[in-house]
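Quick log. Single chain, no ligands specified.
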Amino acid sequence: MNNIKVKKILPDAILQQYVDSYIFREVDTDGITVKKIIPPNHVTSLDFFMGAPFNTIDIRTEAEIPYKTAAIRGCRTTAKYVIEYNKPFSAFSIKLKPTGLFSLLGIEMHKFTDADIDCYSIKLPFDIGHVYQKMAQSTDIDERVNIVESFLVNVLSKKENKSRLSGFIENANDIEAQPIYLSQRQQERLFRKEVGMSPKHFSSLKRFCCLLKAKKQNENLSWTSLAYEHGYFDQAHLIRDFHFFLGMSPTSFRIGDFAL
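-> predicted structure:
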């Protein structure tokens, strides 16, 4: 049995421009091996893993990906990995706003799209080892939030990067339809730098991810109904996105196969 406990906490007001939420997951399978496909995701995150290591397999190459205790995950445009586990572990994720990581750390986000980067392999404006050690020593979710907010506020006090897109993206339901008063080339360059991909690609990815989340929350809703609610033009439009992001049709999709 795959037992998962999830708790979500909102950030302090000073960080709400950059952080969407903190998600804490505790996973236990009672010794049964579980395999889950990691789906596409429009949300960038900084993830900490505690407990037993799990296996991550590249779907295309079948190569095993080295286990990471702390990783930055950019926007994920395909179902790239499968995770396999049979022992308890926990994960603490800092879910960031679309321009949050760029604003806080000055990282050009196109370098992180479809990537899972070990935090120990890159230069960060804080001691990742110290933060991880404090996180691992704590078993209280609120204490872990205080730990990460302490270092994030410290980073914020020294940051020199100002996003030109943050307010625009947060207030736009349809990113492509919003006036941004830049040439198309400038828009593309700015989105690649701050978000990780073009406005059109990000808008499509976000819509598809929200669609999958809605399906998980109510599996009885038809794809036709969900497609209409999430702004798809027609069934053909939905099918195209399924093939583009997942390489399958809606009828082939099984929600239990995915780590949603």
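The helical segments are 100-105, 128-137, 141-158, 166-171, 184-194, 199-217, 223-229, 235-246.
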